[in-house]
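Figure S7 source data.
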Amino acid sequence: MLYRLFSSLSLKTPASLFRCIVHAMKPQVLFVLGGPGAGKGTQCAKIVEKYGYTHLSAGDLLRAERGRPGSQYGELIESYIRDGKIVPVKITISLLERAMDETMKENSEKNKFLIDGFPRNEDNLQGWNTNMDGKAEVKFVLFFDCSNEVCINRCLERGKSSGRSDDNKESLEKRIKTFLESTRPIIEQYQKVGKVRTVDASKSLDEVFAEVQKIFDKEG
Ligand code: UDP
Ligand code: MG
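C-alpha cells for the predicted magnesium ion complex:
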C-alpha cells in the first residue's frame, strides 16, 4: 500500500528513500591540507563561522590525546610531533572517527566536516580508506599552497606564543621535509581525480578567505 503510494507519486520506494536519508546523514568530508603554517587552522575557523562546518584538526586531536591523563599514547605522540613525523594512522583515525561520531550524535544534522591536517601520508590515506570507506564521503581536498619560506616564518612567529614543541627551527625543517616527501604525493593523487581546490595561501588572511569563499559559494 505504502509502496504503491510512493510509486504512484513517482517518489522513491521506501527502501531507496531510506538509503537516501542515510546517505544525506553520512559525514561529508573536506580534507584541508597545506604545509605547516599555511593557515589551515585560521581559515578553517572562518569557514566554520560562515558555512557551518565542524572543524576537526588532526593535530589538535593528537595534542589533546597526548595530554589526556592515562593515555597510553602520550609519549609516542609527543616524540612523533617533535620530530615532525606522522603518528601511526590507527591512533589518528580512532580520534577522528570518535570526534565525528560524537558531533553527529549530539546533532545529526551536523554532518559536514573539515578534517584539517590529514591525510598526511600514504599510511594515513590507506587507513582512512580501510576504515571509512562507505562511512564518509570525501568531497574534495582544500589545498593551502604556500612557499616553504613563508610557512617557516609564520610558524617561527607563532612559536613565540604558541607553546608548541614543534614551532622551532629544528622541528620545522623536519615538518617541511615530511610535507614535501609524504603529503605532496597525497595531494597529487587527489589532483589526478580532479578533487583538489587550490588556494594561494601566501597572501593576507582576508585575501585568502576571499578565494576560499569563491570555492565554498560554488560547492561548499
Ligand atoms: N600529526 C600527525 N598526523 C596527523 C596530523 C598531525 O602525525 O594526521 C602530527 C605531525 O607530527 C605534525 C604535528 O602533528 O607535524 C602537527 O600537526 P598540525 O596539523 O597541528 O600542524 P600544522 O600543519 O597545522 O602546523
Ligand atoms: Mg594547524
